[in-house]
Amino acid sequence: MKFKKKRAAVKQDIPTASLPDIVFMLLLFFMVATQLREVDVLVQFSLPEAEFIEKIENKRLVSYVWVGRDERIQINDSIVRQEDIRDIMYRKRVELPNVIVSFRVDKNANMGVVTDIQQELRKADARRINYSSLLKR
After folding, report:
1. pLDDT of 23-75, one tens digit each?
2. pLDDT surpasses 90 at 90
3. Label partner for 58 (CA 20 to 30 A): which of 12, 38, 102, 116?
4. Whole-Å CA distances, 32 to 19, 25, 27, 29, 36
5. Cβ–Cβ under 8 Å, residues 105 and 68
6. Nearest to residue 117, comparing CAs of 72, 77, 76, 56?
7. Residue 90 near residue 30 (C-beta atoms within 8 A)
8. Count of CB atoms within 10 A of residue 85's CB?
9. Which domains does the chain have, with CATH numbers?
């Protein structure tokens, strides 16, 4: 007479009942934590180099102004005329009173254009200005 051992039937499957909840939480986390690029740069520029740079911590307060090689001026997603800068930045100051204007100027651009833009920013009362550059190595 042979005796057979009976083994307990153990279920080896991984429970997947909470998988949709986990996927939804991960999706929600990445949607909240991800910052999408807001602006397409339409002007060509190469930043000058500096020996010391300081990083701006709160990027939500920054409004970028690009000045290209051909002295075209871009604010946000559009090319603007120099005369329109005051109105655009005034509206931006009304929305964000602590806005920081960050210049991204081509290293070979005419500084007269930059000075004219600075004058328009003063008239719009946008006096917090930052100049972007690359770290000199």
Report:
1. 999 999 988 888 776 677 788 788 888 887 888 877 788 888 999 988 899 99
2. yes
3. 116
4. 20, 11, 9, 5, 11
5. no
6. 72
7. no
8. 23
9. 49-135 (3.30.420.270)
